[in-house]
Specification:
- Chains A, B: It holds the Pfam family tRNA_anti-codon.
- Chains A, B: Residues 164-478 form the Aminoacyl-transfer RNA synthetases class-II family profile domain.
- Chains A, B: Its EC number is 6.1.1.22.
- Two copies of one chain form a homodimer.
- The first copy, chain A, is an alpha+beta fold and 488 residues long.
- Chain A folds into two domains: 4-127, Nucleic acid-binding proteins (OB fold (Dihydrolipoamide Acetyltransferase, E2P)); 154-475, BirA Bifunctional Protein, domain 2, CATH 3.30.930.
- Chain A is built from 14 helices and 17 strands.
- In chain A, the strands form three sheets. Chain A has an eight-stranded mixed sheet, sandwiched between helices.
- In chain A, α4 (158-180) crosses α7 (280-301) and α4 crosses α8 (303-313).
- Chain A is elongated, with a radius of gyration of 28 Å.
- Mean pLDDT of chain A is 91; it is low at 1-29.
- Chains A and B meet through β2, α4, β7, β8 and β9 of A and β2, α4, β7, β8 and β9 of B.
């Protein structure tokens, strides 16, 4: 973004803005002749002796006899750049958290901790920071619960700054995986008029204003009641009638009154839909490949940031991640899962009879049972699954072609199914539920060139929790929304 | 996604599923030995004589004396694959819109229109399509207004399928631009408790259910009233205190009771925030580079799809796009813009005095005046801009460091400003508006290490309208939401 030609035309000036280097006092430059670099680029620069300008926030200040040592971070990397200056440049405003603008010479560092350091010619404090009032303290590793109280400032901590870089890279890795495999990205809508499976726990919308009832106002705007989406699946299925593979990656909503470590009112979902599927294995292959490819990408491209989590947040978690990546995921049927639970010596709070839904305690047990390798649980009881799940037409135990992916620490990471593409079966099930009219548009997808298809949804925050070992979902999203909390 | 090893192990079988090629009747294969290919891959395949399997939807059927000719499309490309079969394989279910599964030999096509064609061994109709009831008719180019009535089926038309491929590629191009330039992607929240500039036109949220007033229920869930975001800017500004550059790309909402060709209730915005800015030019450079880099990427990677628009939807539009790409964008000040408008012979509906906001008619005139080159209009009257815009502290005409980018056909594509980073000025302005308390968190960003920063927002749908020449914004989004309409 910034021109490097500034560097090539270094002309000595005698006007204002004249500085002398802490080392090479003879040379004089004006500020414009300094190349603007991010800390990341400065740290990896080979251009020793070059004149550069960096900007960022002070992470530490140490004043010695002759020299002043600062560590400056700008969020482009976890690492800070060491700035060495003459003590003449010291200033009482040079405090932890203050924003500074430094021009100087990039020099080889005598320390083993970094390759380069910046010998400052000028240090300008652009934004002061009162260290008493600033909630974060120098050289302190604050607990996640503490920094969570400051949603507008927590990106200034090393941990949350690392998290945001990882989240950005993981987003990009997931998008690349889909693009490289021929998936078209579809922006499925946030506002929807279908109440998605009649699942309850929906947020309803209306134009702001007061005095009228929700129905009056809602009907006024869209002419029908509208909700925030709980899944883009049905809209992706529309696209399954025209493309080989599609995906969406966006916010999803649940008005669940939960304060759990695994639930948010607004969270991100990766959802994909694959046309021309042969069996559930086609969908499982995409889930496993996506998980592994994205995780390997993140481990490679955010090595330092990930290490921070695996060292200070979830010590020893890296081993578990490596095991997940190196092993083929297990596949067991729901019926086998029920057998495993019933054979176990553990006492469960919830029932484990065939036909009961698996609870978090069951999911966690099953993953442990499988040696902490992620495990696909397939073919759930037909009656547990929504109308769109494909009927396996088996008996006496009637199942649907649905699968969940369970992972260590988190439990359910993905849910998937083949979708019922057979018009007569789908029509019967919708009729039984009294939904035939409401889902006439969905039935039409099966009337006009229906193809076998299936898909899955993966909770993006749970994915981050799983690979980083973060216990609370509120710590892996920039701004957490949950019951009784919507800060900023 | 699909194994190519199937192709390497071609073993003749004598069991069920035995077919003979229309050309080379001697060879016999079972279906499993056919390599599954998308139409796109089949069309570009060099493996003539190989056994492949394709799946897709019939775009045309033509039966001649001995042979049957089909065109099959699967959405992986605009082009369809020609399938040639013996007339024995004809079937009354082989209609326009039906889904088929074809196995056969890939052969060189005698036609100039395509390199390869598929000589079918078997054709299976997997999903019938009643051509009378299907709203789209064979070989007909339906008007946009017509296909817009079928949000669940319009992706089955060539035009809308092309649009969705372009939209996906443009999304990816924009994300690549930011990633390559060191921007961190931030998922700014959809649900927010701040009413963003007090701009009105907000959607308010509450858990679904009836009987209570909106305030009772809303307060019950988040403890404060909550809205759908109208911009991620303030949340991005949080991140400007920790990163050199950030961006967000997601849905944004306005409860505007408008049926215009340029407005939607739910639309996508690309928003970026750049720290350590020197002037408005830093932000303008990013806008211009983003526009040009993304557009060039789309023109290169979706050449066929874009050509469809520039041929059938907006004839001659390509020339206009090439002009936009080849020329440096103009920069004029708001004051100059007002002079231009006042010197013009055109009669405007809205006033053109200094201090009045520019209306669409003014914006369109200015772009024409600049020879249909995009034009930046800078330094708007201070009183027209929200509290966060940086005060230019000029007089007598008091302006703010804000800029809009106007483009042909669309008018305003981007809005940008430097943000007021000076605590005292910001505090005064918020106090005057009585917002000091509500925005205390925002003031704190300036209390703790404030840096000069600025950013912009670009309407993604308007961007697509601009480069494709699409007149109505409802035709460039998968599912359009606007007043009185929220289908599906």
């Amino acid at each position: 973004m910034f021109s490097s030609s500034l560097l090539r035309n270094v002309i000595p000036v005698s006007s204002e803005g004249v500085f002398s280097c802490v080392k090479c006092r003879s040379r004089q430059y004006c500020q414009k002749q300094f190349k603007k670099l991010t800390i990341r680029d400065a740290l990896s620069s080979k251009a020793l002796g070059s004149n550069v300008r960096i900007q960022g926030w002070v992470r530490s200040v140490r004043s010695q006899k002759e020299h002043l040592f600062l560590h400056v971070n700008d969020g482009s990397s976890l690492q800070a750049l060491q700035v060495v200056a003459s003590n003449d440049l010291n200033d009482s405003d040079l405090t932890f958290g203050s924003a500074i603008d430094v021009t100087g010479c990039l020099e080889k560092s005598p320390s083993k901790k970094q390759n380069v350091e910046l010998h400052a010619k000028q240090i300008k404090v652009t934004g002061k920071c009162d260290p008493i009032k600033f909630p974060f303290k120098i050289k302190e590793r604050h607990p996640m619960e503490y920094i969570r109280q400051y949603p507008h400032l927590r990106c200034r901590t090393n941990t949350f700054s690392a998290l945001l870089r990882i989240r950005s890279e993981a987003t990009s890795a997931i998008q690349s995986y889909f693009k490289d495999n021929g998936f078209i990205q579809i922006h499925t809508p946030v506002i929807t008029s279908n109440d998605c499976e009649g699942a309850g726990e929906l947020f309803q919308l209306e134009p702001a204003g007061s005095g009228k009832t929700q129905d009056e106002r809602s009907q006024h705007f869209f002419s029908v009641p509208t909700y925030l989406t709980v899944s883009g699946q049905l809209h992706l299925e529309v696209m399954s009638g025209a493309f080989p593979a599609v995906y969406t990656f966006g916010p999803t909503f649940r008005a669940e009154n939960s304060q759990s470590r695994r639930h948010l009112a607004e969270f991100y979902m990766v959802e994909a839909e694959i046309s021309f599927t042969e069996s559930l294995e086609d969908v499982m292959a995409v889930m496993e490949n996506l998980f592994k490819a994205s995780t390997e990408h993140v481990l490679t491209h955010c090595a330092e940031d990930v290490e921070l989590f695996h060292k200070f947040v979830a010590s020893g978690h890296r081993g578990q991640v490596d095991v997940m990546l190196s092993r083929k995921f297990y596949v067991i049927s729901y019926t086998e899962a029920i057998d495993i639970l019933n054979r176990s010596s553990q006492t469960f709070t919830f029932p484990t009879e065939w036909g009961c839904d698996l609870q978090t305690e069951h999911e966690k047990y099953l993953v442990k049972h499988c040696g902490n390798i992620p495990v696909f649980v397939t073919d759930y009881p037909y009656d547990l699954k929504p109308f769109y799940a494909r009927d396996n037409q088996d008996h006496p135990r009637h199942t649907a072609a649905a699968v969940d992916l369970l992972v260590p620490g988190v439990g359910e990471l993905c849910g998937a199914s083949l979708r019922e593409e057979r018009l007569d079966l789908l029509q019967n099930r919708l009729a039984q539920a009294g939904l035939e009219e409401e889902y006439e548009w969905y039935l039409q997808l099966r009337r006009f060139g229906s193809v076998p298809h299936g898909g899955f949804g993966m909770g993006f925050e749970r994915y981050l929790q799983c690979i980083l070992g973060v216990d609370n979902i509120k710590d892996v999203i920039p701004f957490a929304r949950f019951s009784h909390s919507c800060l900023l």
